[in-house]
Design goal:
single chain; alpha/beta; UDP-N-acetylmuramoyl-L-alanine:D-glutamate ligase; Protein-Tyrosine Phosphatase, Chain A; 2 domains; eight-stranded mixed beta sheet; 17 strands; about 40% helix; about 15% strand; Mur_ligase_C; EC 6.3.2.12; metal ion binding
């Protein structure tokens, strides 16, 4: 009798002694047995790496490609509510049956090769993508770049969105080394998009050493500008592209990432049309990224760079009083996140996440109080935090952030209609 998807996911968690084990040797062995390295998985492949902005870049790549008539597959991680969110075909979640079939096929050839949860999931996604052969496959790097499981596939174009400190236990604290690791998704003879105005030097150096066919850098080779009535323009004035599009609708996501997505698609030879971009950018909704549900704003920001973007966005939406429901993992820069959010938060409600990696709520409270802030309550988990807010803080604007786990629990609660929505 076949296992359910829930049973399979529980099984995957037990296959390898550690949750994260960077390296491509093990996954490459199994990928070769599956025939994934001997042919194309899609007509074009885009791989997206970076500390922040990967998810929004992937979402905009997909939306614009689909608006221009291309079939798409998107592989992202982690998920918020359902594992199936990780793999989308033309915007629709993959079915349980397709995932189960892929896991069974991998297990049949894996032998004694140990694979992590993420590696098994990545192989399953690649198998399903290969079987369906879409026009474009968009792969989001899980962690780092060069040693990430997604990097067994040679991308037709690589995008590095940003480089900042995060996942220090695995990537270290040397920002140039982190940049070189993320640049490992780039391929010789193929284009590279660097989507940050403050990109560390090692990324461009790696691109030049390969060398890539051409390297397009935000603020140098392409850019965007605000226009009137909430519109913006994208321009790539140099080289063979030499394109400008004006009066584009604001997608509600970082325009650095929007401009990077457009530049990548143009570099892949996809002629961009204003009418189709209107359709694409007007319909993008990305769960957990400045997602508004009633008085709640949910964002998965868990490092200072991402929290700074959230603060900038919230500063443009003044409210009488804003509370932050904050839950974080222990290996994240809580001090930096709190400092970034400080200007737009009036009071704090701190929560303790479940699991060994969680940072206790009282540790977050200590950081806030040391800065002179007010902690209105501590709760044993995000759901308990929502309970407290609904009883004691019914009229405040609420920012929910600090971790995918924090946002996921609150999102599930709000989608069930439990809370002010």
């Amino acid at each position: 009798m076949s296992c359910t998807l829930t049973q399979w996911l529980a099984h995957l968690e037990k296959l390898h002694p550690v949750a994260i084990d960077l390296g491509l040797d093990r996954i490459r062995v199994v990928a070769e047995r599956l025939g994934l390295l001997s042919g194309l998985i899609a007509r074009q492949v885009v791989t997206v790496a970076g500390t922040n902005g990967k998810g929004s870049t992937v979402a905009m790549l997909e939306a614009v490609a689909r608006a221009h008539g291309l079939s798409t597959a998107c592989y992202t991680s982690p998920h918020l509510l359902r594992y199936n969110e990780r793999l989308l075909f033309d915007g629709d979640e993959v079915s349980d049956d397709a995932l189960i079939d892929a896991f069974e096929r991998i297990e049949a050839v894996r032998g004694d090769t140990g694979l992590t949860y993420f590696e098994m999931g990545t192989l399953a996604a690649l198998v399903i993508i290969r079987d369906r052969a879409p026009d474009m496959a968009i792969l989001e790097v899980g962690l780092g770049g060069q040693l990430d499981a997604t990097n067994i596939i040679d991308a037709d174009i690589g995008i590095v969105t940003s480089v900042a400190l995060d996942h220090a236990d695995f990537l270290g604290t040397d920002i140039e080394k982190i940049g070189a690791e993320k640049a490992g998704i780039l391929r010789a003879g193929r284009p590279a998009i660097l989507g940050s105005r403050h990109m560390v030097k090692s990324v461009a150096a790696h691109a030049a050493a390969l060398p890539v066919s051409h390297c397009l850098v935000l603020g140098q080779d392409f850019d965007w500008q605000r226009e009137e009535r909430g519109r913006w323009l994208w321009q790539c004035p140099t080289g063979a592209l030499a394109s400008t599009l004006t009066a584009l609708p604001d997608p509600g996501l970082p325009l650095d990432n929007a401009a990077s997505a457009l530049t990548a698609l143009e570099a892949l030879g996809i002629p961009l049309e204003a009418e189709r971009l209107e359709q694409a950018f007007s319909g993008i909704r990305l769960a957990g990224r400045m997602q508004r549900i009633g008085r709640y704003c949910l964002d998965v920001a868990h490092n200072p760079h991402a929290a700074g973007y959230v603060a900038d966005q919230l500063a443009q939406r003044p409210v009488t009083r804003r509370v932050a429901l904050l839950g974080m993992l222990g290996d994240k820069d809580a001090e930096g996140v709190i400092d970034a959010l400080w200007p737009v938060v009036d009071d704090w409600l701190v929560v303790t996440l479940s699991g060994a990696r969680a940072r206790p709520g009282d540790a977050l409270a200590e950081i806030i109080r040391a800065r002179g802030g007010q902690v209105m309550a501590m709760a044993d988990g995000p759901a308990a935090g929502i309970d407290w807010l609904e009883q004691h803080s019914q009229h405040d604007d609420v920012l929910v952030c600090g971790s995918f786990f924090t946002v996921a629990e609150v999102l599930a609660r709000l989608e069930r209609g439990e809370g002010t929505a």
